[in-house]
Amino acid sequence: MLARVGRAPAALGAVVDKLLLCRAVREDPAEARVLRPLAYAAFAACAAMLAITSIVEFRHYALTNDFGEIYQAYHQISHGDWNPENTLDVLPKFWTGHAELYLWVLAPIAYLFPSPLALQFIQDIFGLSACIVAWRWMQSMLYGPVPPLAHRRAFAACSLLVLVLNPWIYWTYGFDIHSESISIAFVVGAAYAFYLRRTWLAFGLALCVLLEGDVTATHLVGLGVTLLIVRWRKPWFGLALVVIGAGWLQLTHVLGAGVQSAFNFNYGYLLYGFVPDPSLPQFHALTVSQVAAGIATHPLQSLAVLRDKWLASYANTAPIGFIGILSPWTLGVALLVLVENQLAFALAYAQPIFQNVPVYIFGSVGFTWMLVRATRASWTKVATAFAVLAALNSVGWAAVWIPQLYPHWVRLSTATASVLDTVRGSVGDDDQVVTTQGIVGAFAGRKYASALWLGARPTNRRTDMVDFIFVPYEGINVESPNRTLGALDVLVNKYHAQIKLADRGVWWLTVSGGDQGIQFQLPAKSASVPAWACPGRLAYADLFGPSDRWASVLRNTRGDVVSRAYWRVPAGNYRAGVEIEGSGPSALEVWDQTLDQPITRTPISPGPRRTVTVDFRALDRGTNDIYKGVGPFRIDAEDPPVHDNLEVRLFSPGRGEIRVYRVSLEPIPA
Amino acid sequence: MVDRAAAALWRRAWCALACAGLAMSGCAIHAASGPQERLIPLPPGSVDVAGVDDAHLAVLVRDPSGHSSVAIVEREAGVVTARFNVPTDTVAIAPDGPLHVYALGARPATSVLGVYSVGGAREQAYPLPGVALSVAAPADDEAFVLLRRGGGRAVVEVQTARRFMHAAIPAPPGAESLAVSGEAPAFSLLVSDASERLWERLPGGLVWHRLGAAGSDPVYSDSGNAIYALQPFDGNGYVAVIARPFNLPARLFPVERSVGRLGDGRDGSLVLLQHDGDAWNARSIACRSPLLAVRAFVNKHGRYFDEGHFPDPGATLPPTPEPAYTGDEC
């Protein structure tokens, strides 16, 4: 027994070796001497990168609404709720969102590992598996042919770099959890199995793709198209996959799933030429076949869209050396996914992100296929030069974009995260929790959880104890700070919420008792917000006594009494005001935070509690700076909000006590 | 061989043509845009500055012995092209077209507005009914002077072409600085007092309106679309940009604490007189500078997904370019 345990590391090493290197490489010392350390280092780095990203995101609560939906279902199913609700997106049945049935398979893991981090790791394992399968496929192409291919070792090394240095793979797995990032392991596995002519295994893996829902069913259609291209003499397998994929997409929609696919919205505009009102009956009546027919009969509309999004297509395909998506073994999946995402109305789909992960994996394999074909066609020098250039290009993309991974996806400080740790450990398991969007993922492991989100979507009260956990200024929030500050105001003054904790920008409030059947109506925006919710860096929130006495206070200290009271409004004439009481002088300031320029400033004399206002004109001339890359390593980033962010501050020169009760900004009537 | 040489020649010709094209377009763009800001060295002891034309500034200089003179400074080279003496009690100057300068002498009993050619010849002189505080010249042959008369303030209009001085208009008490904009007979008058309050008298109006914005030493922009005023605060200097006709502040931008006077550059620019140690400079901010912008962009992005809004159907259109400078900005 002990001897067996002693041999375990060696056995494990052998398994890993077999996993990473094909037999031809393992048995050729010259090849193994170069490729073994390279493959080990590359996949160790890849695995470490995925794992570290998951840990950092988990530790910083950088898990948003998409993660929350999946984690809620994962948690609930594991706790015996076989048909869980999706309270984050207000779906009575989770499965109607995207028919993501794989969670019922994964749920048993939650018995042992209920943490969100476990779910992140599961996704990472699927990502790593997809990369390893792609790498093995590359080796099969390079080391399969007889006689041996010239420069195959160099091609293998370049292909490996193109695969593991693609930053978009890490961006895919760094953004919450999605069915595409799970299914890619099965899609590429099935394709590789078909390549090896292991048909039953291939079909088994292909059917696993159906578990990931309606979105990934299109990947199966793409795989079918691939088979029709490469096995055109025997089209039955390809046709079968096309029928299964399209049929599953149609079936799930007929059964009521695909509610979140935004199918009509994303492709309806290709038929109409504009985005119609979603309330129109014909808008909802669109079906898959109608959209397909519409696109086929209005091809110029689609071509115009592809032309407009050429930079997004470039950014998706550049790290894989462009040509990979055109190989017959990858054309079906990669090109179909690329086109369907570029044609989607939402620009976010077109950008390098999880929706396009098949492009990155299949495109890398296709890159190797192209090198092999070029070498066989006696274009060895061209192929070698292109391989080296593509590898260098991948290094460039990785150097520019991998360092952006954490600034982009992790936007919550360690100090704030430590406060959230305390809150998370204190919230009851059966409580209903409402949070700001940027942190909802980690709090979604319960029956009732939701994000504040944008707009004025009401929140149904589902339990006696409701916890509101808001971080207005940190995290990837879709709601504005103004909505969060307004929500704090309404919770305290209308719903009589109790503040359980206010520390380092984290607000934890609870509502208990009272009317159980209510809806929390939190305003989409507020012209007036409480000053205690936005104290300056050196000021503190005085929350003693009745709430109308709560204030942001600064005593004999030079600095802002109130800051970060933001409004994002169109150009026009506005009146900013503060309700203030002070024994010393102060100044009311309005800043264009987008331009980082003050707009106006009014000195305020010491005096009793009263409202002081200042009129100003907002010009709305600033432009947010969004990182888009450098040189050729550039993406078509989504535009920032149009309007400038206006900030109302109250500055104290440090003489006397200044108390600010409310801050306001409203348009001046014409 | 000949083909190869011809091809090489062809490639070189194309490269040369492309480089020349790029260089020319680059030069053209640079020439069209020009610098947004410029620091023009002034003679030591400068106390007031105003634009004479788009190439020259007039500067009132007071030397250590107390003598005053007016220097005409070329903006581009920063050299003094003319200099002439004016009375020692001169407190302010204003240009009268490109060829003449008003010099305001403030005597305790009677002040005098002198009209000097840029060569230094005093061509006219107007005794003023009070102690002169400030002078503004909105148009050729037109000058307005703010006076202290007894405990009150008044503005008189001087028409040098007709050698005529209008009766005084009462001005807000405590007014210290005057700016005027417009064309005869529709002039807007603007004054500031020691408490940094701003008052404006619109053309045809009979009363002075208090503006919501604050500041001192105000000037109108050349186009009349903005007011600039100094606004010191907490040990720092700022210039407030106030958009007209709303008269609401649109921007504050920091300047040197030593900035004592603002001047209309006459070419749309704003001129700030600043003094740092032994150096006197005029900071000229061009009209197209974002610091002086008073108009909003119509559409900053051709596509957008704003908070809570339904996406714009034009979301896939290319971004709208920034509107070109029209000259209406300042």
Describe the overall structure.
The complex is a heterodimer of chains A (670) and B (330). By secondary structure, chain A is of the alpha+beta class. Chain A has 25 helices and 19 strands. In chain A, strands 8, 9, 10, 12, 15 and 19 form a six-stranded antiparallel sheet that branches. A five-stranded mixed sheet of chain A has the order 2-1-4-6-5, with helices on both faces. The longest helix of chain A has 31 residues, at 29-59. Chain A is elongated and about 95 Å long. The A-B interface holds A 269, 274-275, 278, 304-305, 308-309, 345-347, 454-455, 478-480, 524, 568, 571, 573, 587, 592, 595, 597-603, 614-621, 623, 638-639, 641-643, 651, 653 and B 212-214, 231, 233-234, 238, 240, 243, 246, 248-253, 290, 293-297, 299-301, 303-308, 310-311, 313, 315-319.
Instruction: Report the radius of gyration of chain A as a whole number of Å.
Output: 28 Å
pLDDT averaged residue by residue of chain A:
93
Regions of chain A with pLDDT < 50 over 5+ consecutive residues? Answer: none
Number of helices of chain A: 25
Number of E-type strands of chain B: 25
Enumerate the spans of chain B where pLDDT stays under 50 for 5 or more consecutive residues. 24-32, 304-321
**Overall radius of gyration of chain B:** 24 Å
Major sheet attributes of chain B: 5 strands, antiparallel
Largest protein interface, residues of each chain: A-B, 46 and 39 residues
- Succession of helices and strands of chain B: HEEEEEEEEEEEEEEEEEEEEEEEEE
Task: Classify the oligomer.
Answer: heterodimer
Distance between the termini of chain A: 88 Å
Q: Give the overall silhouette of chain A.
A: elongated
Q: Give the percentage of residues in beta strands of chain A.
A: 15-25%
Key phrases:
heterodimer; A: 670 residues; alpha+beta; B: 330 residues; mainly beta; five-stranded antiparallel β-sheet; four-stranded antiparallel β-sheet; 1 helix
